[in-house]
UniProtKB/TrEMBL annotation:
<dbReference type="InterPro" id="IPR001753">
    <property type="entry name" value="Enoyl-CoA_hydra/iso"/>
</dbReference>
<keyword id="KW-0443">Lipid metabolism</keyword>
<dbReference type="GO" id="GO:0005777">
    <property type="term" value="C:peroxisome"/>
</dbReference>
<dbReference type="Pfam" id="PF00378">
    <property type="entry name" value="ECH_1"/>
</dbReference>
<keyword id="KW-0812">Transmembrane</keyword>
<dbReference type="GO" id="GO:0004165">
    <property type="term" value="F:delta(3)-delta(2)-enoyl-CoA isomerase activity"/>
</dbReference>
<dbReference type="InterPro" id="IPR029045">
    <property type="entry name" value="ClpP/crotonase-like_dom_sf"/>
</dbReference>
<keyword id="KW-0472">Membrane</keyword>
<dbReference type="GO" id="GO:0006635">
    <property type="term" value="P:fatty acid beta-oxidation"/>
</dbReference>
<comment type="pathway">
    <text>Lipid metabolism; fatty acid beta-oxidation.</text>
</comment>
<keyword id="KW-1133">Transmembrane helix</keyword>
<comment type="similarity">
    <text>Belongs to the enoyl-CoA hydratase/isomerase family.</text>
</comment>
<feature type="transmembrane region" description="Helical">
    <location>
        <begin position="96"/>
        <end position="117"/>
    </location>
</feature>
<protein>
    <recommendedName>
        <fullName>Delta(3)-Delta(2)-enoyl-CoA isomerase</fullName>
        <ecNumber>5.3.3.8</ecNumber>
    </recommendedName>
</protein>
Amino acid sequence: MCTVEKRGNLFILTITGDDEHRLSPSFIASILKALSKVKSEASPGSVLITTSHGKFFSNGFDLSWAQAAGSVSAAAERLHYMVQIFKPVVAELLSLPMPTIAAIAGHAAAAGFLLALSHDYMIMRSDRGVLYMSEVDLGLTLPDYFSALFKSKIGSSSVRRDLLLTGMKVKGESAVRMGIVESAHEGADGVMKAAVRLGEQLAERNWNGEPYAEIRKSLYPEISRLLGLPEKFFSISKL
C-alpha cells in the first residue's frame, strides 16, 4: 500500500495502486510503518515527500468497510475505530524530525485531505484533482483533531467555513489563492518535480530534525495537545 524510497536526503513515501486509496485499518497501519521507517533513518538534512499513484491522493476513510459491518451501530463503531487509529498518523507527521511535503497529484478528500494537511507544505496539480471535506454532505461530524488541524493550518476563518460548512471542492489554482497550498503545477510529473525541487532546497539547510520538530509543535499548540505530543527541550548547539 505504501513504499519508501530514499534519494539522497529525500525520503519519497508513495501511496501505491490506482484505486481511491481509502484509509482502511490495513492502509493506516501501512502508512504508520512507512513513517516509522523514515523516522528511524532520519539524519540532519532529511526531508519527506508523500505522493501517490493514480487519480486519488486519498479519498478518506474506507466507508465501505464500515458499512459492511451490517447494522448502523456497528458501522459507526468501525468509523470511530478508523478515526482513532488515524490519529497517530497525524501525530507522527506533526512530530517527524524533518520538513514534510505533500505532493498531491489527485483528489484529497475528508481524511485524505487531513493526511495532506498534516504536512508542512502542500503542492497540487493545476489540471486535475480537488481538495474536499465531504463530512457536511455525508452528514458526519468532525473529530476534534480534524477541526484543530484546520484551525492550525488554515488562517482564514472564511476559508475554513467554506471548506467545512459548504463542502467546497477546491482545485489547485484556487487553493493557492486561498492560501491552502504552496503552488499548483500541470500534471503529476509537474507536481513531483516541484516537490523534489522544494525538498532539495530544504535539505540544503541541513537542519537538525529534533529541534525542527519541536518548533513545529510549538506553532500548533492546540492540535499538539489533542494528539498528546510531549514537549522536549534542547540545549543550544550552534552559537
